[in-house]
Amino acid sequence: MEPKDLRYHQEHEWIRVEGTQATLGISNFAQEALGDIVYIEMPKVGVTVTAGQEIGEVESTKTTSSIYTPVSGTIVKVNTDLKDHPEVVNADPYGRGWIALIELSEPAQVASLMTAAQYEAFLASQKK
Amino acid sequence: MKRTPLFDAHAALGAKLVDFAGWEMPIQYSGVVDEYQTVRTAAGLFDVSHMGRVTVEGRDAVAFLQRVTTNNVETLPVGAAQYSMVCNPTGGIKDDIFVYRLGPTRFLLCINASNHEKIVSWLCAKAPQGDVRLSDESDELAQIALQGPESQQILRAVCPRAADTLKPRQCVETEVLGASRANRMTGIVSRTGYTGEVGYELYVPSSSAKVVWEGLMKAGEEAGIKPCGLGARDLLRLEVGYLLYGNDIDEQTTPLEAGAAFAVDFTKGEFIGRPTLLEQKEKGPAKRLVGFELLQKGVPRHGMKIVSDGQVIGIVTSGNLSPRLQKGIGLGYVQTKFSETGTQFQVDIRDRAHPAVVVTLPFYKRK
Which CATH fold topology does A7-107 show? Predict the structure, then answer.
């Protein structure tokens, strides 16, 4: 079950909106598919990003995967704990494994993202 | 997709399965890093039955293998194994293989899954008129690798003779017990592997694969044995600098370029690829495979460019983050003048130049 207070993107990122800011991470499905995460190339604080843009990379022992932002805005903070402990994303993708905090420039974009129920249905449809 | 005789065991153990060279194989069970650590500190069990196994027998078997492989089979004692290569006429690597000498005129070849059909047809086409019998035993034999510092004492439980007598790169045809004495069978056990640890490979009848697997899992329970997948295997082999066919070597590369000159014996007489390889040896190859470490955090991957002063001077063929070194490590081909240990260049990781330095292989050596 995916957390109900988050919104999800088809590239398997999630966001948690609080006021004018959104915390971004990768979904449980994404971390499971990647396997052991060994390095994360973080976005830079202060950078302006556009919805759909690649903002970083997650490296696992198996593969490399891009991190996309589903919303536009400015990166105001990144999770520096992940520099030495990227495996936290495996252990707690929706909590301590958050990746970046974004100041939203177009908050209306959030409504177009999937709810937990929609994302679960999306995952189920991908399995077929 | 093809399945090995151990497929049901993998599924029951909760393996994550992927397509590897047409085989539905476990990529991981508990997790790649966990399995990696288990092999470095205790023991891991791998199903490598997807690899090809071909026996070569007959009075002319030695002469035949001398011609189609690069290493010297004549000086290989009975009960020993050697790393070797099968080359095309221009010295390009058709496959890297292990040759086991089971008897004076009897050999087992272990070939890569991805080259199975290609190599079997090549060997058949090159077999002389004389007394050489080739037999593809890949379906009849399963192959299980037991690797890690605890593997010797674990093996002792199912195959005491092999555990007590085998030195590195030796092999023996011996009695192997499965889970119980009633499952006794004859198999081939060798002290070989792809991880850099003490380890063994067991070639047993496919019908017995499951009892041998279960017997080893049970024997290793106390030592902390775990089933391991191809993900851990790839990480383990990379730290030792072992080559992966299709990534590090192919028909466009030669053994000399790949740093495998030790597997080529020019003194043994004619063999397929020798004239080109000899010429390359005399001139020196234009490119060489090197091991390198990144000087900043990052992960090199197959296909990334290696650059120096803005010029492309090579290409990464394998890369990962070494759990041991906590650094990005890789193998790649560079122009020969950049191949000396200590040479610095950059790896282009998504348009950013990451500084790297050539190191002496292996990255990891067992104490």
Answer: OB fold (Dihydrolipoamide Acetyltransferase, E2P) (2.40.50)
